[in-house]
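FIELD: query
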Amino acid sequence: MAPATSPDPHAGFAPLIAGTPLDEARYAVVLVHGRGGTAQGMLPIARAAHATDAALVALVAAGQSWYPERFLSPRAANEPWLGSALASVGSAVDRVRAAGIPTGQIVLAGFSQGACLVLEYAAVAAAAHVRFGGVVAFAGALIGDPAVPRHDHGSLAGTPVVLACGDADVHIPEEIVRSSASVFRSLHAVVDLRIYPGVGHDIVADQIQALADLAATLRGAQSEAHLPP
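FIELD: result
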């Protein structure tokens, strides 16, 4: 990735909107691609999880990468890209909420770099005591040098958080996934930690099912809300 010429290098890249229109959908899935990936490439994940009745908001990174260094690098080494990337997630959430979909009906889902971003965004958002419909991290963990203590605080108020990663993933160390799970437990999330033996940096069917289960829960909650008294 070339040196940033802007303090907000991802600004101006409009997300891809698919699935059900925002003004018609009852829930939304914000999708964040990984390094070298595309917004379009995240849509089959949502389709496989039978979530096309949701508004699908797939984010777009400048140069197909959210930040230049590893997610375990000191945060300063990934700026200003990292701050801009987190702002992109926040802008997507704000856009969904402005369409009338509450935070509790929004799922954040990402792969690789995107998984790291949705986790980091959720951990920061806990300071505002919010509850999301869910967070699904396909092969990712919290961002930053693991030798530097984190100072997360607040509450995710029972947000379901799925951390799903293979134990043979050469990019995402298992111990960092497990420590990330501990952080989210401390933030009052309901953590679903899934470590897959022999799986590398990939998405497997069980991960797709985790997203499908969250979508079904939100779909069911909305159906019950519209039942006659």
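FIELD: remark
Strands lie at 16-19, 28-32, 55-58, 106-111, 134-138, 160-166, 190-196.
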